[in-house]
Write a structure and sequence with these properties.
The protein has 117 residues and is of the alpha+beta class. It has a single domain (13-105), classed as Nucleoid-associated protein YbaB-like domain (Ybab, Chain: A, 2-Layer Sandwich), CATH 3.30.1310.10. The protein has helices at residues 3-22, 59-85, 103-110; strands at residues 24-28, 34-39, 44-49. The chain has a 3-stranded antiparallel beta sheet. A hairpin with a 4-residue loop joins strand 2 (34-39) and strand 3 (44-49). The chain is elongated and about 65 Å long. This is DNA-binding protein YbaB. Keywords: DNA-binding.
Length: 117
């Protein structure tokens, strides 16, 4: 890899890192009583519970609704991450099966010539 290629890769990594910081996914429960926001890696940033959730004393149902809402927020964030990194992926990459943590790196590395010292 040339110095220019290394610089371009470094610039791309910096741009990706900056873009990842801005990505969030938010979802609301179907009844609108639960709202969850997650970061680009799926980390929970905010969970809002409307006080009306306590009118229904079923804690298992509440827990399931919270988990489902968080999962939908994670899916929303992952769609944004995929859009950000898709230039580093094969053209036929599928958001449902792409490992967004490693696939962009592995794809870019696989295109690089190998040199052994």
């Amino acid at each position: 890899m040339t110095d220019q290629g290394i610089q371009q890769l470094a610039d791309s990594v910096r741009r990706l890192r900056a873009g990842m910081r801005d990505i969030t996914g938010t979802a609301d429960s179907p009844d609108g009583l639960i709202s969850a926001t997650v970061g680009a890696r799926g980390e929970l940033l905010e969970l809002e519970l409307n006080p009306r959730v306590y009118r229904q004393p079923d804690s298992e149902l509440l827990a399931a609704d919270i988990v489902e809402t968080i999962q939908r927020a994670v899916a929303a964030a992952q769609r944004e991450v995929f859009e950000l990194v898709k230039e580093f992926l094969p053209t036929d990459a599928d958001p449902a099966t792409t490992d967004l943590d490693f696939d962009p790196f592995l794809h870019s590395v696989s295109d690089q010539p190998r040199t052994w010292v």
